[in-house]
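Obj: model holo form, ligand = zinc ion.
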Amino acid sequence: MTVGLTMAIPASASFQVQVKPSSPQLGDTVSVTLNATGNTPSSNPSVVLNGKTYPMFPLSGNRYRALIPTIPLDQPGTRQLQVSDGTQQQSLTVQVRDRSFPTQSIWLSDDKNSIQGTDFEFDRVDAFKALVTPEKYWNGPFMRPSNGYVSTIYGVRRYYNGEFAENYYHRGVDYAAGTGSPVIAPAAGRIALVGLESQGFELHGNTVGIDHGQGVSSILIHLSRVDVKEGDMVKAGQVIGGVGSTGISTGPHLHWGLYVHAQAVDPVPWRYEGVE
Ligand SMILES: [Zn+2]
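Output (holo C-alpha cells):
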C-alpha cells in the first residue's frame, strides 16, 4: 500500500468466512475458514464459541481454518461464533441440526461394574486428546483402520441395567475382526501415545494414539499387539498393531475414536468426504 494513502475499510470487509458443512448435524466437525482478502496475513486468527477459543491454522493461500467439534451430548440449535483475524471480529451464526442416535441396553454383572480403569490410563489418554499441534499431517479422506465389519457405529446411546446413561455415547466406531488381524493408521500422524494393559491400561487395553495435527487425533484400543512406539511418524495405511480383546472388551474388535479438540466426533464425514 502507498505510504500516505489512507483507506476506509468497513470492519466486515477485511476477511470472509466460510463454514462447512453449511448445515451440520450433531457429531459433525465444523470447519470455519477465514479468507483474508487484504495483503496483510492475519496473526493469531481464532474462533470463540461459548467462551472457548479454537485456534485457526494456515491452509493454502491466505486462508486460516479452525475445526470445531459437535457431539451427541450437545444441544442442537443456534451457535454464535466470534471469528477474529487477530485485528477485527465477525459474528457468525451456525445452526446445528438434531440427530437421533440408536440406543442399546446393557446389563452388567457387579463383577464388570467394578472395573473402572486406572487414573494412570485416564491421565495419559486425557493428555493425548488435549494435544494441539500446529502441523497438519493428514491429507485426504481417512482410511478404515480395520477390514472387519462395523459392529457398533458412532454415537450409540445406552441404558445400563435399565437406566439411561446421560453422559454416555459411543465415542467411536467398532470393527469386529479376528485376533491379530492388522490395524492400520487411518491417516498420517505422529504416534503420541502407546499404552499397555500390562502397565495399567485396564479399561482401554493395549492402546495407540495418533496425533494427526491441528487438534485432530485417533485412538485405537483393545489391541492384541502394538507395532509402533511413541515418537514414530506413520503414514496412512501403515500397520500399527493387531485387533484384540485387551482391556474391557467382550470379544476381539477394534475401537477407533476420532477426536477434535478432545471431543469424539463422527468419523464418517472424515472417511467419505474428507476434511481439507
Ligand atoms: Zn467401541
